[in-house]
Amino acid sequence: MTSTTKDSSLLSLSLFVVIVSLISSTQSLISPNLERMSYYFGFQGQTAQLGLLTFTFTLVAAISLAIFGYLADKVVRKWILVSGTLLYSIFSMFIMLISPDFVGYILFFFLASGVGVGYGAIIPSIFSLIGDLVKQQDRSKGYSFFSIASLLGMIIGLLIATIMGPIDWRLSYFIIGLAGLFNAVLILLFFKEPSRIGKDFSYLLDKEVIDYTYRIRISDLKMIFKKKCNFWLVVNFVDTIPTGIITFLLFYYMSEYHNVPEGISLIILFFVILSSLIGTVIFGFIGDNLFKKGKKRARVLLALMGNLVPIPFVFIALIIPFELQDNASFGDLFLIPGAVIMILFFMIGLFVNGAVNGSWYATVVDINLPEHRGTVLATSNFFDIIGRAIGPLIGSLVADAFGLVYGMMISIFFWILIPLFWISVLKNVIPEMEETERIFKERLRELSKEEIL
């Protein structure tokens, strides 16, 4: 029985990685083709219109997250997951139909918004499900996979967009949509909804003792956001603004400022994201090992470090000057000291920033009851998505007004503010975690008595 449950959990987690990777990739399909798409729609190289489109996509996704996050705490999450996957897949495939004019831009606006709704349905459902499939002491590692899937999605999106861009940038959306349809079938055939009681108390399910029947109510919202940790974890949307700016402008910036073509920029970005993936895994293990030793603040301390330490590295990487010669190869970059320093400093900064990923998600789960997790994550992502929406909009406006270097550099201003949001979390995480555990165990005792009676 234990072996079967473990195999089922691994299959589910693997499926989640694929789902999150695919839906996350849709957010990275514009950046490699930013200039190409601008001319396709007749904007003559201006980026603000596509910045506005990205802003709208992320805003729609944020509203969708808030709605489906609450529903994920009330209804069967499998059907939300299937619906969200089908929605983003179909809308992505229809992008192949848009025309190279302003009417096509409006249609793209509509279809991209539909993809955003699918994103909002998928993310809180998977987040809530992972909380039920992974033990508390392994949550940093478990949610590292959630973060890794998002980063993999970025790589997949950038890779497909870069390869397909010269042929037809719309093909990248069609490919992602087609893969999503296949994924929806896998969910229907192989995924079984787990109990909200969670992995730590799965032995009670084996004995058929209890069924966790608690679901979120509107009146619970006041209790959820009275928790100081929840408040500060939710409003910490500033941390998504810098990455939103950098990823949106990166390819255009590398081409204009460093004369680095899209293909080489993609390779650089691959190494930078790979360093973040490695950091996410390593710090996930470190956080869980420290937690097992009784250091319950360890995950929050790692997240604080992961936000603070990268600032000088990213700052230097953005301002260091160099220029690649025309028709140079990726290997030629390593003959330029400035290029080597930029790549190295970006990799160091993003490696340390990986400490935030699993720690943030694990902390959200640790301080909230099972029927509240989807709502808290959805609210957090609502604000995060606003940050991601504001990032490209601010970056594109500053870039158009003052140049791409200033558009990229504005990200550092927001990055400096991020660590301030973790101070209250560090102070309150232990008492709020212990109070949640107390309520949860008390409920399990009451449900056990009801079953016996």
Name given to the CATH homologous superfamily: MFS general substrate transporter like domains
Percent of residues in helices:
over 70%
Largest sheet: none
Q: Give me the count of strands.
A: 0
Q: Which stretches are low in confidence, meaning pLDDT under 50 for 5 or more residues running? A: 1-5
Describe it.
This protein has a single domain (14-189, 214-452), classed as Growth Hormone, Chain: A (Up-down Bundle). It has 18 helices and no strands. The protein has helices at 2-25, 34-40, 48-72, 77-94, 102-133, 139-168, 170-190, 202-206, 220-226, 228-234, 240-258, 262-292, 298-308, 310-319, 337-366, 373-402, 404-417, 423-452. It is globular. Residues 1-5 have low confidence and may be disordered.
